[in-house]
Every structure is written in structure tokens, then in C-alpha cells.
Design goal:
Layout lengths: L5 H4 L1 H10 L8 H36 L5 H34 L19 E5 L12 H7 L5 H8 L8 H20 L3 E2 L5 E3 H6 L12 E6 L2 E5 L4 H5 L6 E3 L5 E10 L18 E11 L4 H18 L4 E5 L11 E9 L4 E10 L3 H6 L2 E4 L2 E4 L1 E9 H11 L7 E2 L13 E2 L3
Length: 427
């Protein structure tokens, strides 16, 4: 959430950010007007309270002197009535202001490149060389079905379209990748946590999924703790909320967590995009990396976080490129970020496998997540990144390690996690 003071002191900063995102800068104006109204009401209320106190003292003086105090008492009652009306209006204004603030995206970092969408994301670096296959590369779903280890028809029977059933070595690979990712995160200094997969509306709002992305979430009938409840779209949501409404000691920062969870996304509005196979499904597994830092450290933290996600692909020897997300693609809550795109021979293209994002204080303001510096409580900065999405990693392994006979070589680093299995073949 943006700082409400921006709309009083620097509305042009918000207008510029919206323009860079390709949004209407006039979205700022209702908040500017509400900010002016709120401040006017607050001043009037403060003035009235001061006047009421002064007149109340005068009432006492009149009564002690034996003089008629009723006219002044009437004035005090009138002031009290007006003050109550102002307080009631302030609540309405504050509620409307918060609703509009929750609907506006984060400020784009000045270092974020301009651009309208992912086609304008500049490539920052590439690692590895796409394999030169002596045969026509097959897409991952065709390879997995031929191995007898991916069954989209039975998945559809259980749950409908865009779910997966994996078996045999591919099911084991899913588990092995989770262990590899978590072990690497631990070596990089992350503390592993297990978190709930069902969370409340307040929790979803804290990280920015609500109200903006409600149609992309799975809402649960019955709710939790008296609130609407949702299946998590990513571990970012519960993990970042761990310290909601807390004031951390500065010496605790940075806090770094990793968490393995299933992720649930309705993918509303994405019909026709990657609807076959494991790229865009309603349920998948992911290891998420989350940072909570001091404001002055978050820029460097983004580079380190992205490096940790890249190191997993390097360990798996999967070629990839890292792109800087432009202003039109940085995401609702993001100020600056990178996408890591793995090479997929079956598509002859690089496809996203991880996003790493610096949110600045956008989430922390919603979460009231602060740290103590001397006698001041300051907002933290939050970051997260996929380290990695497991299903898409399986896609990349299937396509990059495929052999002419349809078998799949297992990446060397993954073999100890799969009991020494070096090649996956049809049973």
C-alpha cells in the first residue's frame, strides 16, 4: 500500500508511476481529494476539541461565580455534536481512502526499465548453452505421456482440466527437486518454515493478493477465524505475514525464510495459454524464498536473492536467461524485479521459471511490519522469489535432458536424491 502522505505532498510521483505502468494517472485524483478532506476534518475536529475544552473551563468558572452557565453549556453540547459528526465522517473518509489505496499498485522503482509488457523486458544475462539435439525436440507433455508417468486424463477425471497426475520416476523427481531446492536454500542461509495452506482474507490482503486478484484465487466456503478463507497461491503469502503487526529489532534483519508449499491458482483469464501439460496448472509445488530487510539493503538483497534462484538452475545445468521486468510487467506490488527464464527445446524458447521481486515498503505498510532503529519504528522492506517452481523445473529437465529413444537423463546433482537413478525410461 502506498503512503497516504504522497497524495498530499507528492501526487506527481504517483502519477508518473502510474503512467510508466500504462495506467491512467487520473486514478490519483480521488485520493488527493480524500486526503484534503480528511486533513480538513481532522483540523476542524482538533479545533473544536480545543474550543470545547476552553468553554468547559468557562462553564466551571461561571458556576463557581454563581452566574448563568446554560448558554455556554448549550455551546459545548453543540460543539460535541459537531465533533461526533466529524468523527463519524472521518471514519467513512478513512475507509474510502484505504479502499482506494488498496487498489493502487506500488511505485515503480526508477531503476526499473520502461516498457509496456514482457516483450519489452531487457535480457540482463544468459547462462549455459541450449542443447544441440540430433533429433527433433519433443514437448514435455508428449515425453511424459510416452514414459507412462503423466496422466492428464485421470487427473481430469478427478478434478477437471489443468491438473496433473505424475507417477513413477517423475513423481519421485517432484519430491527430489523439493529436497534439493530446500537443501540449497539452507546452505544459502535461509530458515525453512512450514506454514498453513489456508489463510484468511486479512493475510491475503497483507501481501497484496486482495482485493486486486480475487478472481485468481480459490475461495473456501465456510471461512476461517470469522473471515473469508483462501488456498494460498504461493508461500509468499503466509511466510511474509509471519511478522505482521510486529516490530523487529534492527539486529534481526535481514530475516530470510524458505518454504515448500503447494500453490493453488484459478488462473482466471488465462484460457488458451499453456493449457496443455505442466506449465500453467491450478495446483503445483514451489519452494519460495522470502526476505525482510532494512530499506537501505533491499536493492542489494534483490541481486542476492536472484542469484540464489539462478544457482539452482546452474546446479541442474539448465540454460537460462535473466530479464529485468519493465514498468508494465513488474507486477502490482513490485517496485523492481527480475524474471528467470529457462530454455525449453520443445518450444524453442525461454520461458519463465522464477520471478524475484523487491516490494519496498508496499507490503510492510499493509502488514504494519516494522523494525526499531534507536527510538523510531520504521517500515521494513520485503522481497521474494521462486526458488523454484517444481513443475516447470520438471518441464525443463524433460525437454533439455531428452534422448532420441524418449528416455530422460537425470541431472547429476539430482541423482543422489533419486537413489542414484541416472536415466528415466518407460517401465
Amino acid at each position: 500500500m502506498l503512503d497516504p502522505n504522497l497524495f498530499a505532498n507528492q501526487p506527481e510521483v504517483v502519477r508518473l508511476s502510474l503512467t510508466r505502468r500504462g495506467m491512467d494517472p487520473a486514478l490519483v485524483e480521488p485520493l488527493v481529494a480524500l486526503n484534503v478532506r480528511r486533513r480538513a476534518l481532522q483540523k476542524e475536529g482538533d479545533d473544536l476539541r480545543q474550543a470545547r475544552n476552553a468553554k468547559s473551563q468557562l462553564v466551571g468558572q461561571k458556576m463557581r461565580a454563581g452566574e448563568d452557565a446554560e448558554p455556554i453549556k448549550a455551546e459545548v453540547r453543540a460543539i460535541a455534536d459537531r465533533t461526533a459528526a466529524i468523527d463519524a465522517e472521518l471514519l467513512l473518509v478513512a475507509d474510502e481512502e484505504r479502499g482506494l489505496l488498496l487498489s493502487l499498485p506500488n511505485l515503480v522503482d526508477p531503476a526499473t526499465p520502461d516498457g509496456a509488457g514482457d516483450a519489452h523486458n531487457p535480457v540482463i544475462r544468459r547462462w549455459g548453452t541450449p542443447p544441440e539435439l540430433a533429433f527433433a525436440a519433443k514437448p514435455h507433455d508428449e515425453l511424459a505421456v510416452a514414459l507412462g508417468m503423466y496422466d492428464p486424463e485421470r487427473a481430469a477425471k478427478l478434478s477437471g482440466a489443468r491438473f496433473a497426475v505424475l507417477s513413477g520416476a517423475l513423481a519421485r523427481m517432484e519430491r527430489a527437486l523439493v529436497s534439493l531446492f530446500c537443501d540449497m536454500a539452507e546452505r544459502n542461509g535461509y530458515r525453512e518454515v512450514q506454514v498453513p495452506y489456508l489463510v484468511t482474507r486479512e493475510t491475503m490482503t497483507g501481501t497484496g493478493q486482495l482485493p486486486k486478484f480475487e478472481e485468481d484465487l480459490f475461495k473456501i466456503a465456510g471461512g476461517l477465524a470469522g473471515q473469508d478463507a483462501y488456498l494460498i497461491p504461493t508461500a509468499e503469502v503466509p511466510v511474509t505475514n509471519l511478522h505482521r503487526d510486529e516490530i523487529l529489532d534492527e539486529e534481526q534483519l535481514p530475516v530470510r525464510y524458505n518454504a515448500f508449499t503447494p500453490c493453488f491458482r484459478s488462473e482466471a483469464g488465462s484460457a488458451g495459454r499453456d493449457t496443455r501439460g505442466l506449465v500453467r496448472v491450478h495446483q503445483f509445488h514451489k519452494v519460495e524464498l522470502v526476505w525482510i530487510t532494512r530499506p537501505e539493503d533491499s536493492t542489494a538483497a534483490l541481486e542476492t536473492l536472484t542469484g540464489h534462484a539462478e544457482s539452482v538452475l546452474q546446479a541442474l545445468e539448465l540454460p537460462y536467461q535473466t530479464v529485468a521486468r519493465c514498468a508494465g510487467d513488474v507486477g502490482f506490488g513490485g517496485a523492481r524485479g527480475y524474471d528467470i527464464e529457462v530454455w525449453l527445446p520443445g518450444q524453442a524458447a525461454y520461458r519463465e521459471i522464477s520471478s524475484c521481486t523487491n516490494f519496498g515498503d508496499f507490503q510492510a505498510r499493509r502488514l504494519k511490519l516494522r523494525f526499531k532503529r534507536e527510538k523510531k519504528n520504521l517500515l521494513c522492506h520485503t522481497l521474494n522469489g521462486s526458488g523454484l517452481a517444481v513443475g516447470r523445473t520438471i518441464v525443463a529437465i524433460l525437454e533439455n535432458y531428452q534422448q532420441a529413444d524418449g528416455s530422460i537423463r537425470v541431472p547429476t546433482v539430482l541423482q543422489p536424491y533419486m537413489g542414484g537413478l541416472a536415466v528415466i525410461s518407460r517401465p
